[in-house]
Amino acid sequence: MPSLSLIVITKNEEHCIARCLRSVDADEIIVVDSGSTDRTVEIARESGAHVVVTSDWPGYGPQKSRALELARGDWVLSLDADEWIEPEFGRRIRCAINAPDAPAAYQTLRRSRFCGKALRFGGWSSDYIVRLFQRRQARFSDDLVHEGLIVNGSIRRIDVTLEHDSIESWPDAEDKIDRYSRAAAEQMMARGRRAGPFAAPLHGLAAFLKVYVLRLGFLDGAAGWGVAEYNRRYSAAKWRRLAEYSAQAKRHT
How many whole angstroms separate alpha carbon 194 and alpha carbon 243? Predict the structure, then answer.
C-alpha cells in the first residue's frame, strides 16, 4: 500500500497549524519552520510532525523543496499552514493513491475564505491546484513567491476540496502584502524587469478592476470588495518596490 507524506512550511502559525496537520491521515508529517517566535514548532511536534528549523529564508519554492527532500512517502501532499481538508476527502485521497492507474499527480479544488467568508467569485473561488503527487515525479520551482510544482507525468483531477483561510483579517492581509510584494519585486528584478514611478498606481487599479469587475467579485459583497482591495494593495506594493529597486540600480550604473 503506497505511503503518504504531508509536508508544510511554517513561520508563526500557532493559530492554525494544528488544524492543518491533524486534518490529514498521513504516514509521516514533515514541517520545515523558518524561525517561528510563537508556539508553532511546539504545536507541530505535539501533532506528530517531524520538525526541522532552518536558520535562513531562501524563498517559498526553495523552502518547500527542503521539505520535499525530507519526505519518504511514496506520495506527498503539500499544504500551506492555513489550509486543511475535511475527513471525507481524506478517504478519497487514500483511494486515489491506491488506484492501480494513478497518475503522477492529482489536481484539487481549493476553496478560499476572506475574513471568514467563503468566496464564489473574483478569481479566488475555483482555484484548481496540484498538491498531491508521487514523490519521485514532481519538484517545486525555485520561485521566491508563487511557486509551483513541476510534474513529470500526467495530472488528473480528484474530487477533493482544500479549505483555505486565505486572509483572516486586515492585519493578516497587510502582513502578507508586505512579505509577498517584497519577494515578488526581488524576483522580478532578478529576472530583468524594471518599473517607473507610475507603475504602482496603474497596476494597482488594474488589479482591482480585474477582480471586482471582470471576475464579478462584487457579487461576493463586502468580501468581494475586500479581495479586490487586497489585490490592489498587493499589486501596487509590488510595483512600487520594483520601481525603488530599479531607481537604486540605475544610480549604481
Answer: 7
Closest-CA residue to 140 (of 30, 29, 33, 64): 64
With vertex at residue 156, the alpha carbon angle to CA 152 and CA 157, rounded to the nearest 5 degrees, is 140
Residue 239 — pLDDT band, cuts 50, 70, 90? very high
Residue of 53, 73, 39, 45 lying closest to 9 (CA atoms) = 53
CA distances from 50 to 75, 127, 130, 143 (A): 17, 29, 23, 25
CA distance 145 to 62: 10
d(CA 136, CA 126): 28
pLDDT of residue 123: 87
Domain boundaries, the chain: 4-167, 170-251
The model's pLDDT over 34-80, given as tens digits with 9 standing for 90+, comes to 999 999 999 999 999 999 999 999 999 999 999 999 999 999 999 99
Q: Has this prediction a pTM greater than 0.85?
A: yes
CATH class of 4-167: alpha beta
Instruction: With CA atoms as reference, report the closest residue to 132 among 151, 113, 112, 145.
Output: 151
